[in-house]
Amino acid sequence: MDVGRRLLVLVVMSCSATAAIGGSEEAIGGTRGSSEDGGDQQCPILNIPELGSLCGTTDTSAWSNITLYNYQNIPYALPPSGHRRFKPPEPAHPWNGVLDATKFGKKCPQANTEKELKDLRTRINSGEDVEDCLTLNVYTPVAPGKCDKHNLLSVMFYIHGGSFRVGSAHDFRPNYLLDEGDIVLIVPQYRLGPLGFLSLQTDELPGNMGFMDMVLALKWTQKYIKYFCGDSSRVTLFGQSAGGAAVTLMMASPLVTPDMFQRVIVQSGSSLCDWALDRDPVEHAKRIAELANCTDENRDELALCLHRTNTWELLVAHSDFLTEVLVTEGQAVKGNNGGNHAVIQQAGPNSFLIEDPHVLFKEGRYRHVPMMAGITKHEGSFFLGNIYDFILVRDNVTNDTEYLKKEFIKDTLQFSGIDDTTGAITDIFQDKYFKDDEVGNFTAMIPGLIDICGVTLLKACLLQQIRHNWQLQPSYLYSFNYKGHLTKFGYGEEVNYPFGGGVAHSDDLLYLFPHTKGELYPHEVEVAKTVVGLWTSFAKDGQPYVNDDVEWLPMSSANGPYLRIEKTSRLKDHFMEEFNITITEGYPGNSENRTSDGQNLQTYKVGLLLSILFTCLRSL
């Protein structure tokens, strides 16, 4: 299988860490040319008792020009390589001298692009420990030595997404979130793909290592964030897509103690989504191992072989497995979580997850904390792109009217993880999302398909997640519906679909973190300020603030109210209107084209029916 084809895989939900500068007077008191653009930056020295000293950089916030102090590439764990591969992380040791915290640490190994795989192989061949990646970045508006210990700042701890297979801390900079100078931001890296999540359900290969990395980073935060002027008793855990699923898993894990975080923000992801859990980890691990030329039937011997396997070969084997399941078997959800998602552990010295999240949340056996959670308007466009690639184009059926009429909706549901053996579920979706004259015409079906993909993969499970919480703690529900000129649709790759992304999966991040491929227009900056204000006010006070004209009320029923975030945000009553918003408002979505009250009522009824359907499906 060629590398280019191998890399066409669904991504849901894409200097050494211990190298010291040295204790010279120049490093401690002078400046260093350490910024990525080559310019000189001050080298603020931060001393952390029991660990060592850090040399960071300074930057300014996006709009208020507040000075920010950035400390990157801080090791929180020992290198998870050699005998530590597949094992729970161990805390990093103190260092001598001054640690260079001026640049990003290396990304955890991942098979994201052909170039990254090629570079990874070159680095391995040069003898580099590419698995030494467990570092974190801390951003604070307070200069070293200037912290008032009686006025510590709220902490926001961000878990990046990327299907637990790709991504890093590099893309999440502080310039927006720290613009008011009253937040400390921490962004950890964690092991990805098979290195972080492969499981044979044995002590040697238990699974959930990436989540254990996150737990250790939270412990590090509790111990050391005060030296950055952060308050360890006011930590808000937030994450998007797979990171959102990780946040909710932290709420249910026995390894996470009550003091580690006090609030959560869940963006476009949940541990209750079908894609979040690998329900057949041993079978998946065996198939991946076979592709890596590890074929022993004994699981302990198989684990030993995987321990010895070259990092590049292991990632290639995993990518081949995902492509095989996705392309050959047409199973996105069931195929995409093999070897790179959570498992219900049956072995290992530390069990991160011991029961099905559906059971834990239904029975209330999780950490009850204030929650803010929501989705983007057109979550489904990203997933429809994969369906277009791996069903329509692969089988050359884009214009096959007969196929589109009789099989396509059922195949779309199967791709999304719903097996409809009787056809009854397909009939419900077809009846509620398409007019009779639309079925068979792909272009006409696009709005309904985007809604179906959004509901099946994200919107229904996120609503189910916050419904477990709203009667126990203040819970704020939202839908991000603002369409700007930037988008994450395609994740930086050129795409040639007969549809756009709309307000796509991950587009909300454009208003929380600076985008590397473009700047916001002035009118979009105002939206970003609103979004940042919502997130940070919740982190600081537990009450997201919109403006003096709109009060965002917590949920008072299972369906709302919720905040629809737009150029002019407003509170609405029935969240399930977002379940088929594309077919009611059109596509790519014009927020000025409103449906009538009668149509809104019908939309709500459709959403209610689908919500009941999903509850039944997930209880089977």
Automatic annotation (TrEMBL):
Check the record and name the Pfam families matching this protein: COesterase (PF00135)
Keywords of the record, alphabetical order, are:
Glycoprotein, Signal
Q: Residue ranges of the Carboxylesterase type B domain?
A: 44-575
Question: InterPro entries annotated for this entry?
Answer: AB_hydrolase_fold (IPR029058), CarbesteraseB (IPR002018), Carboxylesterase_B_CS (IPR019819)
Does Signal count among this protein's keywords? Answer: yes
Gene3D superfamilies reported in the protein's UniProt record: alpha/beta hydrolase
**Leader sequence segment:** 1-22
Record protein name field: Carboxylesterase type B domain-containing protein
